[in-house]
Amino acid sequence: DGGITQSPKYLFRKEGQNVTLSCEQNLNHDAMYWYRQDPGQGLRLIYYSQIVNDFQKGDIAEGYSVSREKKESFPLTVTSAQKNPTAFYLCASSIGGLAGWSEGYNEQFFGPGTRLTVL
Amino acid sequence: GQQVMQIPQYQHVQEGEDFTTYCNSSTTLSNIQWYKQRPGGHPVFLIQLVKSGEVKKQKRLTFQFGEAKKNSSLHITATQTTDVGTYFCMFSGGYNKLIFGAGTRLAVHP
Fold it and tell me: What is the CATH number of the domain that holds B8?
């Protein structure tokens, strides 16, 4: 089955620790995204990658880092510099990306998400 | 900067009643997408609207894109308990900006 997976589903972290969230897709999509969702709010873009070895900051990139060494994988590291990391993190992918947004092919497929709690 | 308003924030309906959520942008959009997120789940793509005045239907769901491409609506006819969830609009706000509405949470009472 094609799809997008995230692990772990739940993650607990102590203050001051870095933690890496996994995101893998086998849809052969070029673009991948990381979002943060807080209770009762819409999604906010953390990082975006249009293609392998390239990524761009979104609206709330401070305290986060990413890598895109393989087309299938886009891991997100939540660093100790992120002041309020407790949230629901969603990874997504699409065929096209922001570069050609008006052309379409940017329907986003989301993973099941990771709930991060900082203790 | 570009802003989006999605209303209402919450909507409680009796099963069988209709439901509408609205998404309003401060600027003209190239296109707009709608997503549904079930409680505890992840967003699932519903539809994309591209043309001015476009209307698309999916069974009991009707999506509209305004003539000026600044607003959009999602209407559900005769709601069912399976319609429960939060409905989001989303669009591109320019280079490296994707903007989601805050969502409308729909509760359906049987």
Answer: 2.60.40.10
